[in-house]
From TrEMBL:
One of its GO terms (biological process) is mitotic cell cycle. Coiled coil: none annotated. Residues 20-102 form the BRCT domain. This is BRCT domain-containing protein. It comes from the Eukaryota.
Length: 104
């Protein structure tokens, strides 16, 4: 098992306990996670939801896209690397999206 997956599993266990439920991502707009993301999309989606965030199935509904995209995206969607999510959660603070932008 890779190092990142172990960290995500540990984070999931920690966050799933009722009194420790996190709301770190509750204040950000809905996110779309690229199917090509690493760690995998389903794992990142679960982590976002465990931290109080909302995940969209369609990119047109999101304001933030996590992971590498192929094709066009709306100009008002910020495309950031997975590292933004992992860093923000690891340090329990939202880092500026501008520091993690992709496709600029």
């Amino acid at each position: 098992m890779c190092y990142q997956n172990r960290n995500i599993c540990r984070l999931q266990c920690h966050l799933s306990a009722g009194e420790y439920q996190q709301d770190l991502l509750s204040s950000i707009p809905a996110v779309y996670i690229s199917p090509n993301s690493q760690p995998p999309c389903d794992k990142l989606s679960e982590v976002v939801q465990l931290c109080g965030g909302k995940v969209c199935k369609a990119m047109r509904q999101a304001k933030i896209c996590i992971g590498e995209l192929t094709g066009k995206r709306a100009t008002d969607v910020q495309n950031v690397s997975e590292k933004w999510l992992l860093d923000s959660i690891s340090h329990h603070r939202l880092y500026p999206l501008e520091n993690y932008l992709l496709n600029e």
